[in-house]
Amino acid sequence: MLIVLAFIILFHLTGAILLFVSTIHNAWWVVSKAGPDVVYSDLWLSCNATCYPVENSHTAAASYLQVIQAAMILGTILCCVSFFVFILQLFRLKQGERFIFTAVIQLLASLCVMVAASIYTAQKDSFHVASLREGTYGSSYILAWISFPMTLISGFMYLVLRKRK
């Protein structure tokens, strides 16, 4: 049982780290221009030699970007909260009870990440200026999609997990 518990904790922490990196790292959208110039754009900044706020991020047309920012932050916070709730329930629950509250929080985190990545996929052109539309998805975008099934599976593991001896 100790090995299963260690695996679940490691799996949860890996998902949380992926969420942190995908939310903070500046590589949701990558535009390779002629020469060595590469422009990285994420939820917060666009960077080539210098970084500046994402253009049009304050307009109504780019309200999608604000929803994505909020959903990724909420997903990351919920993932961390579910880990702390799991640790608390690990010592407080009686034997044989399930970690349902932890699972619900983790599944909500998974839902937030899915919503954010889906909206980014569908609406990326609405908040990128015309010069940045000819790019490709970056590593942070891919990490966000990888963290979605990890948090989802982690949530289901908590639903199935019972506290045993």
UniProtKB/TrEMBL annotation:
GO terms for biological process: regulation of glomerular filtration. The keyword Nuclease does not apply. Pfam families: PMP22_Claudin. It comes from the Eukaryota. It is a multi-pass membrane protein. The chain crosses the membrane at residues 67-87, 99-122, 142-161. Keywords: Cell membrane, Cytoplasm, Golgi apparatus, Membrane, Nucleus, Transmembrane, Transmembrane helix. The keyword Cell membrane applies. GO terms for cellular component: apical plasma membrane; Golgi membrane; membrane raft; nucleus; perinuclear region of cytoplasm. Interacts with PTK2; regulates PTK2 activation and localization. Interacts with ITGB3; regulates the levels of the heterodimer ITGA5-ITGB3 integrin surface expression. Interacts with P2RX7 (via C-terminus). Interacts with ITGB1; the interaction may be direct or indirect and ITGB1 has a heterodimer form. Belongs to the PMP-22/EMP/MP20 family. This is Epithelial membrane protein 2. It comes from Anabas testudineus. The gene is EMP2.
